[in-house]
Specification:
There is one protein chain. The protein is an alpha/beta fold. 42% of the residues lie in helices and 13% in strands. A six-stranded parallel β-sheet has the order 2-1-3-4-5-6, with helices on both faces. It starts with 6 loop residues before the first strand and ends in an 8-residue tail after the last helix. The structure holds nicotinamide-adenine-dinucleotide (NAD). The site of nicotinamide-adenine-dinucleotide (NAD) has 28 residues, from helix 1 and helix 5.
């Protein structure tokens, strides 16, 4: 699928899934603008309204928006501090509102477009000790569905991409918070029936599909790209320890 003549914004495009997506869209002909607080591009903090407005000032239209910027936080409903809760909501949820609010009018100028919000399997399920993160990723699915419904007739599609565990700096940072990072990464890989971690390119290819005409009839979805992680009832451990396996 070619994206020549298309203008794409990728938030969080300096690292991980966003970086792979920016590279793939560029390789397929799009003009890609990265909004991130790190890396080579002009810095854009996606929680800062004036910074977003300034970044958009010279752009007359936008065809593709990929919102990949996000942070991982940990804690239960009782152990999560208000500071961590508010920061998680700001960076993961409010930013998506602010960016889509600013970009959608530019997309309408282009006669439509495609938005991919990067959620997670945690947009449709939960892992332990991640109350703020899980809540933030569920919220992105709500925003996805609202945008899909409100702008469908104006030619804007919006989908929530829901990756499993992807080998990025974020996942490596998460693993580094545990006693045995290597064992944690192996365990993360085993969560997927496909038996490996996802790679940033696995998700970039899905986002490219959702960004182009091949997905013209797809909107409002929680689009799982999770190596089958959400398939087993009770999770991988439930089956791997034999409890769900019949002897015959
Ligand atoms: N890696 C995984 O296993 C995984 C799984 C499911 C979902 N996700 C989601 O995918 C998205 C990308 O994750 P990743 O693993 O590529 O992480 P990453 O840490 O490699 O990249 C995230 C990028 O977002 C940028 N960012 C953070 N705050 C920002 C801000 N205020 N303004 C602008 N940029 C900001 C960071 O600088 C970084 O470059 C995130 O939303 C994450 O929650 C990741």
């Amino acid at each position: 699928m070619s994206f020549s003549q298309k203008l794409a914004i990728v938030t969080g495009g300096a690292s991980g899934i966003g970086l792979a997506t920016a590279n793939l869209l560029r390789a397929r002909g799009a003009q890609v603008i990265v909004w991130d607080i790190q890396g080579d591009s002009k810095p854009v903090d996606i929680t800062n309204v004036p910074a977003i407005a300034e970044a958009l000032r010279e752009m007359d239209h936008v065809d593709i928006l990929v919102h990949s910027a996000g942070i991982q936080t940990y804690g239960t409903a009782t152990s999560t501090s208000e500071e961590v809760w508010n920061r998680t909501m700001l960076v993961n949820v409010t930013s998506a509102f602010l960016v889509t609010k600013a970009v959608i009018p530019k997309m309408l100028n282009a006669g439509g477009g495609s938005i991919s919000l990067v959620g997670s399997v945690q947009s449709v399920g939960a892992v332990a000790n991640s109350a703020a993160y899980v809540t933030s990723k569920h919220a992105l699915l709500g925003l996805t569905r609202s945008i899909a419904l409100d702008y469908a007739k104006q030619g804007i599609r919006c989908n929530c991409v829901c990756p499993g565990a992807i080998d990025t700096p974020m996942l490596r940072w998460s693993a580094a918070q545990t006693d045995d990072p290597e064992a944690t990464l192996v365990a993360c890989a085993q969560v997927h029936p496909l038996g490996r971690l996802g790679q940033p390119d696995d998700i970039a290819k899905v986002i490219a599909f959702l960004s182009g005409e091949d997905s013209a009839f797809v909107t409002g979805t929680a689009f799982l790209a999770d190596g089958g992680a959400m398939v087993p009832i009770g999770g991988a451990a439930f089956q791997e320890n034999g409890t769900a396996r019949a002897k015959i």
